[in-house]
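Task 17 of the worksheet. Students: predict the tertiary structure of the chain below and write it out as structure tokens. Keep your answer in the requested format; marks are given for formatting as well as content.
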Amino acid sequence: MGRRQALASYSRGPLLVASGSVVLGLCSYAYLSLAARTVGPVDFGELSTLWAIVFGFVAGLWLPFEQELTRIVASAGEPSPSSSDLRRVAILQGSTLVLAELVVVIVVTVTSGALFGGSAVLGLALAASVVSVSVAGFQRGTLLGSRRFGWAAVQQGSDGGVRAIGAAVCAMTGASVGVFALVLALAPLGGVLAALPGTPVLDHVRAVTRTWGDLVRDLAALLAGSYLAIVVLNIGPLVVRVGAGPAETGRFMAVFVVARLPLFFAGPVVAGLLPSFVDAYSDGTGRSFVRTVRAVVAVVALGALLGCLALGLLGPWLARVFFGSAYAGDLKVSVVLAVSSALFVVAMVMQGALVAAQDQRAVAWAWLTTTAAFCLGLLLPLDIDQRVAVAYVISGVVAVAAMSLLLSRTSPAPSSVDAA
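Model answer:
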């Protein structure tokens, strides 16, 4: 297969998965809009806190398991992978789920007077979200690894549909913020049920290919990288708030949200590419794999740069349209943030290649280096909003460079791995 044909085949997965993400994104906007208009600013603030926790820290907790599942299932070939390997991932994920729920109970109990305004229902919704997002991530990992991209899109689209329809019902009945929170928490299970007919039955019991120690180390490395990325990509507005007033933070946040839109689609792109990267790694040499990844990255980088630059140039205007005339942001800050978003999209694609090459620890090292670069960038003698924007570009360049360097030392796929 020629390079152009290979690149065309690689686009199928990302496009299908992205279609589900588009539906999910539109439905999420409808959910937030209906909730904001129904419950009022104070309760919506508490719901926004739940939203940030669920789609930041809870989703980040289960992403490494999803990526590892995708890699395991995709590398096993047809007709299906060994259920023994997946059983080990399921045991580790289940153990992590129990620990996560204990943390939720402790946090909600200790901060009962502050977190969620003391609402027990929102605390219950957070606990339910830990379960529902975990189950959805496990199913999505098996769907993506089996290259059932359409069903993965069905799962995400149905999740969004349940979220939007539930919010519409809540709005018509004048429901409380707690009911809106429960809709948010349980919507992923609607996606799981909708995609159940397409979920593969993994019943082939063969010798395991990963030791417990290797699996734990790989998942821990991915988890560390995932949370470092979450912190770096989202901490900008908080840094601005520390160094400036709420008005400046609000204007920065408005252009920040617009500039970060491409990162919403980076996840589906990586998810759709991961099985193809696994095939490229398994079928070729280390050098051919790196060449393939670089060709894919070049296409993604071009699209990301063009799209992000357009958003950057339109950012201040879009911020005024979406958030009001009081949120007129700085054009230079908007463009610089947009360029950093393009760099991070490229870094996330390269992260998927590192996972495919079974170099999960390299992911953690790359994001650790990126975090350090961001911190150093904050020392520049600039206005706080410009300083944060430039720090993002510096850390984005470091992320791409670090992952490129780590990918260049990729070894050929091993023919066999000692079983436990």
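Marker's comment: Residues 212 and 420 are 7 Å apart (CA to CA). The chain has 13 helices and no strands.
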